[in-house]
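#structure-requests
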Amino acid sequence: MPRLRILLVLTMVLAAVVSWRLVQEEKPPSQAITKSGPRAIDYYVTGLDVTRMTTAGQPAHRLRAVNLQHYTDDDTTELQEPHLTVYQGDAPPWEVDSERARVSADGSLVLLSGEVLIERKGDANNRPMRILTRELRVQPEQDYAETDEKVRVESDSDWLVSVGMQAWLRPPSRLKFLSQVNGYYVPR
C-alpha cells in the first residue's frame, strides 16, 4: 500500500510539473508583449493638395486635406477634412467632402467618416445635385461609392431620401438607392 501511495504521489507531481511546463511554453515571450498607447506615425503632411492625372494628361482626381497621417502598424493613412474632386471631362466635377477619411494600405479603399457631402454643379446637360450621408466607402480606381446609412439627395426643388446607396461617379454617372426610398419630384 505505501508503495502505491508513493507511486500515486509521484504521478501527481509529475503531472503537475508537466502541466506547469506546458503552460509556460504557451505564454508569449516577454518581448512579444506590445505596449498599448498611441499608434506610431512615420510621416505626416499638412495642407495636402495632390492631383492624379489620366494617361491623356487630364486631371482625374484632386485630393486636398487639412492634415494627413500615415501609420506604420497597418500602413493606413488618415486624413482630416478631406476634399476630393472627381473630374468628369466636359461635365461638372463631383466634389466630395467629409470630416475624416481612412485610406487602406494599397489605396483601393477609402472610408469617409462622419458627415459626407457630395455635390455636382449643373450645366446644360446635368442638373445640380447635392447628396448628404455618413460613413461612405469609396473605391477610387472605379469611381464607385456606397453607404448603408441614410441618404438625402437634392436637385433644384426635387429631393429623395433612402437608406443605403450605391454611386457610380464615372460617366455616365448613376445612383442606386437600396431601401426605404421616398421622394418629391416637381414635373418640368
